[in-house]
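[job 4471] stage=fold_predict status=RUNNING
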Amino acid sequence: LYHSFVESPDMMNIYNGNIVTDKHGVATVVLPDYFEALNQDFRYQLTVIGQFAQAIVVKEISKNHFTIKTNKPSVKVSWQVTGVRHDAYAEAHRIVVEEDKGKERGTYLHPELFQKDPVVAQK
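[job 4471] inference complete, writing structure tokens
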């Protein structure tokens, strides 16, 4: 299983898609079988498309799916879920968010990318 990454202080995965609610305004989003084995601490975002309507998450993630409800039927909803990785590798290798650059403070770590002198960064 390969994933790309999100620029974040957390080791996060993003899953997203679009779904249309049924005649009762309900839709169940099915996530990959491995979703809960790989992720924890979920965050949800819903955006209604094409009309004014309300959308909520009525059932949070359980058994790799969650349920959306809208106040109207047949509403297209764009959804996004993020989860913080909790697989064995992620648990053993959490990223360090801030580090002291020590003697490299004030210098470019990759000056060739900026066409700059490797010794001194502009301040």
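[job 4471] summary: The two ends are 42 Å apart (CA to CA).
[job 4471] exit 0
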